Amino acid sequence: MSQSPTDTATINLTLDGEGPPYQQIERAIRNKIQSGAWPPGHRLPTEEELAAHLGVSRSPLVKVFKNLVNAKVITRRRRHGTFVSERSDNHAVIGIIDIRETIESAEKDYSFEVLERRIVKGREFDVWPDVDPGERLLWLSLVHKANGAGEVFEERLIQISVIPEVENTSFRNDLPNEWLLARLPCTRLINTVRAALPERRVAHALGLSVGEPVLVSERRSFANDDAVTWVRLSFPGYRHEFTGEFNPLLPMEN
Fold first, then answer.
1. Residue 69, Cα to own-chain centre: how many angstroms?
2. Rounded distance, CA 60 to CA 30, Å?
3. What is the pTM of this model?
4. Which residues pair with 137 in a beta bridge?
């Protein structure tokens, strides 16, 4: 059974003009899925139909569909077509701490403040082995707040060559993690958790004395073969813990 043609006028997919065509197309499809316009089980237009609708060659579509399949956002069924996966949101959040949700689930008001934003070179940092010393990176530091008080201190590097539009994004209103996940898949991450004594600026932002320990989560995230971001989150050790569960009766997620 072959997939019947889709009226390209009903696709209604709009590109934002930021970055390479394949990134724009992938963002547009992800936005359709995340907004619920294309719910789980929805059949996507074919590569040919999308190419005709968007006025592009099939080449970027092939890459987009491959990325989305690898990230488990969409599923391909032979002779039937391509569909939004039944659990299309899980690929992006497994292993990633949602600080806003954690704070709001505790019935506290969430806010954040960007403390520093600048363009740097990879050679200025020895924490991210996945990028070349000459690569241009965006450096951010911000504090996540609960009821106006510092709750988590975030330090982040983003590789500009992978997502060029980040260079002109202030992040005054957009959380870096949410902004990145809306534009690129997280197909692999490396995460470590350790205890540490905070630097003075971290302790000040979190209302700690220099001798009070923090729990540090340090993560490197990838979109397919590209190193996208390095992030270090510092949590006051006396009021945070990390819990994980593995159930051998359930299938593992990537």
1. 16
2. 15
3. 0.61
4. 120, 159
